[in-house]
Amino acid sequence: MRFLHTSDWHLGRSFHRVSLLDAQRAFLDHLVATVRGERVDAVLVAGDVYDRAVPPLSAVELFDDALNRLADLGVPTVMISGNHDSARRLGVGAGLMGRAGIHLRTDPAGCHRPVLLPDEHGEVAVYGLPYLEPALVRQAFGAESADHAAVLGAAMDRVRADLAERPAGTRAVVLAHAFVTGAAPCDSERDITAGGVQAVPAAVFDGVHYAALGHLHGCQTVGERVRYSGSPLAYSFSEEHHRKSMWLVDLGASGEIDARRLDTPVPRRLARLRGRFDDLLGDPAHDRHTDAWVEAVLTDPYRPQEPMAALAKRFPHILSLAFEPDAGDQDVTASYAQRLRGRSDGEIAEDFVAHVRGRPVDRGERAVLREAFDAVRADTARTEGD
């Protein structure tokens, strides 16, 4: 049986205020074309279909169109809710959709009831484990503690118990939305820490032939049978070097796995540039980034005048600008008292103004500060004399 494993669509999300709706539509077009061209038997979507609990109408329409096209192809789709989704909202109409081959698994209580997909070798039991919030499901699952490892372990115990009662040779696939130990996160995933612990061991999925994971946005292999598809698009500059893709997984007669990565469309490359303002504007090495979405970090000791406008002339798609002045010879570990030792009140005030404004004070401003300090000293002396 051939599966297409994807996750973390985050429909409705933007990238630094730039709409990704067209890019998400292009991805879904690519997904449907892949299902048709690769003769996929079932699509697995491992959570975070939407970017937020109440998605915009445009995202809902995009989702609806994708499901209709998959249903028209007659290809079953198994989908779980992620930590960004509203499980209740995503699961509305699940019973009716199931009759069309779209199987929404959003209720934790049903995690041990699989979607059964037949092929020439028998049945494949596909279990959908929606995102499990420990505080909400611990009691119902009888978990020993309110952390992700405990509740996911309890859910998998239910899966293994159901599988044990099925005919010998039944192959099993699990969809889950979690952070598995050993996997690499990035900046664009919402933290799911519970009780100080968010990671679960890969061994929790022992007993099934393939675990299709969602939550982390980088495509990665935790184990031969435990994989993240990653998000189909980049949602933060921390994903600059990600290769966005889906897994095409062939599940053999005895449960053997053959997995192949299929690239997804890239709407625009990402570039994180760091350096002095003049270098970013003039270095020919940056010419290749003129068409990229750019995040620039300036390391100048003082803020240049209107840097964003100047950078936008060279990098028309610049989206983010930050300032991180080089420390130089300054001892950043020195205490506040050590850094002020030997400096006059006027020098400290001048440094403060320069830091806030981004350039040193000029001669006239220095005179104003000096007059202000002189006035304060005179007033203090009068007060003490009285």
Structural notes for this entry:
With about 375 residues, this protein is α/β, with parallel strands linked by helices. The chain has 3 domains: about 1-265, Purple Acid Phosphatase, chain A, domain 2 (4-Layer Sandwich); about 270-325, no CATH class; about 340-385, no CATH class. Helices cover about 30% and strands about 25% of the residues. The protein contains 11 helices and 19 strands. It has a 6-stranded mixed β-sheet. Strand 2 (about 15) and strand 3 (about 20) form a beta hairpin. Helix 5 crosses helix 6 and helix 10 crosses helix 11 (about 365-385). It is elongated.
Task: Provide a concise account of the structure shown.
This is Nuclease SbcCD subunit D. This protein has 386 residues and is an alpha/beta fold.
